[in-house]
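Sharing in case it's useful to others searching the archive later.

Someone asked me privately for the predicted structure of Transglycosylase domain-containing protein, so I'm posting the question and my answer publicly. Question first, with the sequence:
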Amino acid sequence: MPSPRSPLSRLFTVLLAGVLAGLVLAVAALPGNLIGGQVAKAALGAYAELPDALRTPTQPQRSYLYANDGETLITTFYDVNRSDVPLAEIAPVMRQAIVAAEDRRFYSHGGADLRGIARALVANLRGGGTEQGGSTLTMQYVRNVLKTDPTRTAEERQAATDQTVGRKIQEIRYASALEKSLSKDEILNRYLNIAYFGSGAYGVAAASQRYFGKAPADLTLGEAALLAGLVKSPDEYSPIDGDRAGALERRAYVLDAMAETGAITPAQAAAVKAEKLTLHPTAQPNGCTSVAQGHDDWGYFCDYLRQWWLTQPAFGSTVKEREQALRRGGYTVVTTLDPKIQQTAQQQATAVYGYDNKRALPIAAVEPGTGRVLAMAVNRHYSLDENPAGQANHPNTVNPLISGGDSVDGYQAGSTFKLFTMLAALEAGKPLSTGFDAPAKLPTRYAADGEGACDGKWCPANANPEWMDGYRMMWDGFGRSVNTYFVWLAEQVGPAKAVEMAQRLGITFRADSDAAFAKDNAENWGAFTLGVAATTPLDLANAYATVAAEGTYCTPVPVVSVTAANGEKVAVGQPSCKKVLDTDVARAATDAARCPVGQQSAYGQCNGGTATSVDRIVGRPVAGKTGSSEQNATETFVGFTPQVAVAGIAANPDDSTDLVGAPVQAKVIDAVARVIRTAVSGQPVQDFTAPSRELAGDPQRPKPQPTPERDQPRQRDRGLPSDLLRWLQHRRG
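And my answer, the predicted structure tokens:
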């Protein structure tokens, strides 16, 4: 029960009620023509100029994030747990209960209830109970708005509750003016959406969820009476973290009041009072670390969306304003996250490595032609919970392991970068049939010394000479992942062209050493085609999605639509795409990318692949590429159809010297392929369009002739130049 108030507070309430009662009774006794004149203006004020906050409420509301179906809730963001609902979505018994509990003459007074003030005066003079101030629902609404208006200063918000006669008279003036501007139902609706019901719940929608786990439209008579009883003293009466017995007493009071107003019968009131109090407390999630129960893997996508949000000028001119908009703006955000694809990606990531494994398999899925991010999974819990001793980022972490950023530069993706060299060559006019007798080791023009060098030059080597050496064109050079072919091809067009191509397709160099090579030494970055630069699954998936979309690059985007609290669509989230490759060039690269996955090119030139299980798993036209970094430190696969591109990279995010090993490559391939299969399930089968004969060229395979390079002993070591070896060692350290 409420604690007794101080004698001073009690005295003020009595005096205030007396002053107001005398004031309004004096006005009421005046002739009608004077009430309409200057005396009435002096007493109650003329039609007041309402503050903007009362004309157009700007109260904070929580924002909702949904999956791409618009129904699956991911999480909410809020500073204040509050969400507006129209009156039609509030149960009639809730409306009746709040009127009976707080303002029985609500529908008959004009904002200030003269009888109520007089009744409060008499009750306070008699004593023996809680003091009454005679405030109407309209006056309470005015007070609630002014004390929480985010556009007002802290001092102005504090003044809205000051115990002064002047403040009370101003409240009456505003309430009277408001009643001239809005209908009773609109005022009631606004009141129900702002009133505090305890336990952190502002507004009837938040309260219904907090106490009963349901929408306000579904409240029963007993539930409505309980909530209506809370507003008198929310924190004291709250049955969750306050006074359960007090809450029941208040419920009984409201039920009796409803019977007195005729909203219900005395028998109904008695029946509900006999009911046990049944609660279903529901904690509203707040932020990315409290996503829907059992789906903490969604947190990585949620965090990616939040980072994207903070870059959007539509939500404010500064990062602080955009953060505030997300937490207070009442937005409804339909994201691009596909729950089915996400579920498969998470299952596959954790099937390769468990949550407690120091190694990780981050996976990203992107839709070609839109850039929509469909899934982001990794074998980690998105959580701030403490990890066991010695485990830096597992099983819990909030680091962006899939998208990169902050301290995450990414991971070497190996031969998947050969795509950029092939695209640069095709763009330079070299057809797919461009042939080269690929040796086991290839002396290059790049200076090097030490192990792996040939006469002072860098000599990259094929990982599997027996299978890779020989006359190769782009088709089987890509299909068999022939290192010496692609290093040679990069020399023909210039490594800088391959670096520029990667950047054009969205590869971001987050590591300082990579950025420096790209900026200052790209023309001598011969090893770039072998995938020594760090990248992320999201960047890689989107780069390959550009090829799948026949040369149209789309900036990755995590939202389908954003709707403001007033129902208006915000102009963000639309695909932002541009043509970055000639269509025929993209088609030619796709044709070669059919070879690694065990399918056949349009020109019949595939003769072996490094990921042939993909054809069987996906069961429709598909393309892709494997990648193994130096000494199998990482293993990568990226695959695509016209409808989806998916990339996964097995690595140790905390220690690049921890080599994941070659055996995991088959698991990574299968994992990515199964995600692709889920993504295209139920969609029409789409084939790739064959490239022109001009870009295919004349695929004649001349009999290879011996060369000095081919006569050298075959070595499996890739033989990176000494400066690159030192650079790699520096990165691993």
